[in-house]
Design a protein that fits this description.
The structure is a homodimer of 348-residue chains. Chain A has 348 residues and is of the alpha+beta class. Chain A has helices spanning 7-23, 29-35, 42-54, 71-81, 89-98, 106-121, 174-188, 193-206, 213-226, 239-242, 251-263, 265-273, 285-288, 323-343, and strands at residues 58-59, 68-69, 124-128, 137-146, 149-156, 161-167, 234-237, 281-284, 296-304, 310-318. Chain A has a 5-stranded antiparallel sheet, sandwiched between helices. In chain A, 43% of the residues are buried. Chain A binds chain B through residues 103-105, 138-139, 141, 143-147, 149, 151, 153, 155, 159, 161, 163-167, 238-240, 243-244, 249-251, 254-255, 258-259, 262, 343-346, and chain B through 103-105, 138-139, 141, 143-147, 149, 151, 153, 155, 159, 161, 163-167, 238-240, 243-244, 249-251, 254-255, 258-259, 262, 343-346. Chain A binds a DNA duplex (30 and 30 nucleotides) through helix 3.
Chain lengths: 348, 348
DNA sequence: ATTAGCACTCACCTCTATCGAGTGCTAACA
DNA sequence: TGTTAGCACTCGATAGAGGTGAGTGCTAAT
């Protein structure tokens, strides 16, 4: 794709995209020819623009208006023209200082990250906590609520607390539960949930005929507790900032956006897509094809600690986002959070 | 106040309010005289309306438009004219069936309640989980994160899980923590957090010179853990439904609302005001005087279990809410949730 | 290949006219 | 004396007309 455009066309496309990013208005040939010194008259610029439009990189809202980049145009810009600013030492230090992670619960860390991302970018910050399945077992606790109903509390290695109500054999006593907890805590410590699951399944089969009743109970309980059904946690910050963007200024678009942010399902789905990738990823609205998120663009990066718990953070904004500014922020923040996750626990 | 108005004025005010509730448009004298059979001509109705306007119960957006009730008008309507529908057995059963509380975590119960409230009322549902301070102690657990940093997990009697990171003496070993946990769990079980606090303070003073080092550590730890700094949890559901209401149809008002819902602080403040009251409470926008929530009205009721943990739930909508329909829903839901809280634990 | 020139398009603004729902006031009526 | 019919008036909402200007496409000259 990159080679279809000659240098002049590239320069003009870049100029148009960047002008449009700051102005949110259709860009005219005159403006381009004046602001950037290509030594080209408006008429020449117009010729190039007509070509770019034919290639689907630009479009004009109506006959007598300037051009705006299409999704494809932005995609091209991101793929080949965007040069991401790298943060210098000062900027990195400033960013580091923006975050206050001292003595925070994991939930608070996630929320704080979202808040800061949103504040710095002036768009909407998203943070998806590490998925339950990607966490590493640290401790489990069972608390009896009523006959046959237990509250299970699970703490991951990084201090992420999750809980769940499970049904259980009503005959289990409190001291049974304590023993079961102790057994599981010693057996499963340090294993990833995936490892835990396969281990549990394996042992359950082996022990099917075994007579250690308590151990069997323990396996059954932990199966119910850890098998599934713990939902993703998504933190959305600064949704109202999006409503200030000119592309979402009509009531209908606002409703759409708020709905999308509220249901969270769409967003989680979108963030999931990037979970396997490394580094910063950019999804462009049209591509993502979620009606409610039309016109939006998503910059994400995964974070993880050394043992693998993977979460995702990022910024969602209008397609017309300031990528060169936001990308490094998202990138560095992901690195920062990864390091914080590791620091949460003793390195041994 | 009620006695200043004669019956005819009351009838007309009621008619205007109810018409406005369904139409969201200024109500004219002609409409009133036709739809309701007071046997009064529009002219007579106009006379009454002029009186009501003078008393500050009505106002007209401009000279030649119908009247709309003022905040004061709504207040009067709610105080003296509103007759709340009581739910019949069928409706109660339907409402009960709307909620699915089986094997849900407390967090999920709260969220579910918000969702259903919002769905039934078509406005925005609010649920504030019982305040930490109003809960009853059930269990506490300390998990070592790093040298000198502990994760404290607190479970209230109703199964509400909260956690917090606290600093602690780095020399504490894992078995120390276990002992401390056991000690606290046996000592504090069944006490309200307020009782716990006074007990801790008392014992800390008594034991100041004592030589039981571990006990002292236990007291210190639990003080740090339970003293304060656990924030309220507020669940907001169906915010986007509010954006469909005609009074919030302009971009500016939408932004205001979304901002108010997002920051949550305003809402928590507002909900706090009703924490001491019993039964359903109604706050009207102008009265609440929060700029961001102008034009909104709040119907709340507290719920609590037998031991006193108090939370609040309700519905926030335009002042022009269908009170007679929403009030009984909020009322009955609060009763329902109260009962669920009690059922969460063994009755002993 | 580039560009100056020109006719053309179309969103946007403002001005004006019209319409109609609703009012307040007054005079007539039961 | 309370009620009502009649009437002039107000004012938002809607629609159309005209002007403006930014921007385009095309063509012919450089």
């Amino acid at each position: 794709m990159a080679d279809i455009l000659n240098e002049r066309s590239q320069n003009i496309l870049e100029a148009i995209v960047e002008d449009y990013i700051t102005s949110a208005e259709p860009v005219g040939s005159r403006a381009i020819s004046r602001k950037y010194d290509f030594n080209l008259s408006p008429a020449s610029v117009r010729n190039v623009m007509a070509d770019l439009e034919e290639m689907g990189l630009l479009c004009s809202p109506h006959t007598s208006s300037g051009r705006i980049p299409t999704g494809k145009g932005f995609q091209y810009y991101i793929d080949t023209l965007l040069n991401v600013r790298t943060l210098n030492r000062n900027e990195k230090q400033n960013l580091r200082n923006s975050y206050r992670f001292q003595n925070m619960r994991m939930e608070d860390v996630m929320q704080e990250v979202g808040r800061v991302l949103s504040g710095l970018s002036q768009y909407t910050g998203l943070v998806m906590a590490p998925k339950f399945i990607s966490t590493v077992f640290r401790q489990i606790e069972f608390i009896r609520l009523t006959q046959g109903r237990l509250l299970m509390i699970y703490v991951s290695e990084t201090g992420l607390v999750q809980n769940k109500v499970i049904e259980a054999d009503p005959s289990l006593t409190v001291s049974d539960l304590e023993q079961i907890g102790n057994y599981l805590n010693s057996e499963l410590n340090g294993l990833s949930i995936q490892e835990v699951r396969s281990k549990l399944n394996q042992e359950l089969q082996e022990d099917r005929i075994h007579y250690d009743k308590l151990k069997k109970q323990a396996l059954k309980l932990s199966c119910a507790a850890l098998q599934d059904g713990i939902e993703d946690q998504l933190y959305v910050s600064g949704a109202s900032l999006m409503l200030g963007q000119p592309e979402f200024s009509t009531p209908e678009q606002m409703k759409r956006l708020v709905h999308a942010f509220e249901s969270k399902k769409l967003l989680i789905e979108l963030l999931d897509r990037g979970q396997s990738a490394q580094g910063v990823q950019i999804f462009i609205g049209s591509e993502s094809s979620q009606i409610d998120l039309e016109g939006c663009s998503l910059i994400t990066s995964n974070f993880s600690n050394q043992k693998g718990a993977i979460g995702t953070l990022g910024v969602i904004g209008p397609i017309r986002m300031n990528y060169s500014q936001v990308v490094p922020i998202v990138d560095f923040t992901a690195q920062l959070v990864s390091r914080v996750l590791d620091r949460e626990i003793d390195q041994d």
